[in-house]
UniProtKB/TrEMBL annotation:
Organism: Phrynocephalus forsythii
Similarity comment: Belongs to the short-chain dehydrogenases/reductases (SDR) family.
PANTHER family: RETINOL DEHYDROGENASE 5, SHORT-CHAIN DEHYDROGENASE/REDUCTASE FAMILY 9C
Gene3D superfamilies, per the entry: NAD(P)-binding Rossmann-like Domain
Keywords, comma-separated and alphabetical: Signal
Signal found in the keyword field: yes
SUPFAM superfamilies: NAD(P)-binding Rossmann-fold domains
Leader sequence residues: 1-17
Full protein name: Uncharacterized protein
Gene Ontology process terms (BP): retinoid metabolic process; steroid metabolic process
Highest rank taxon of the organism: Eukaryota
GO molecular-function term, one example from the UniProt record: all-trans-retinol dehydrogenase (NAD+) activity
Length: 80
């Protein structure tokens, strides 16, 4: 019984290790969709990812929130 638990644990650690080592080759070709970008966490995340070069699709509830976000980010960020 303990042998199976030990084997499963070792396999889990190996899989976790290799999964964490994977990196994106280029995030410039990736899109991120964020909802709730009018204010708060969604707004801050959209601005931060935009500065890092991600292409951000930001979902805003109000037109005022979309306008405020549009002024704060580069043109590649698309609030809607």
């Amino acid at each position: 019984m303990w042998c199976y638990v030990l084997l499963f644990s070792l396999l889990w650690i190996v899989v976790w290790f290799f999964r964490d080592r994977q990196m994106l080759s280029s995030f410039k070709d990736k899109y991120v969709f964020i909802t709730g970008c009018d204010s708060g966490f969604g707004n801050l995340l959209a601005k931060r990812l935009d500065k890092k070069g991600f292409r951000v699709l930001a979902g805003c509830l109000t037109q005022k929130g979309a306008d405020n976000l549009q002024r704060a980010v580069r043109p590649a960020c698309a609030p809607s």
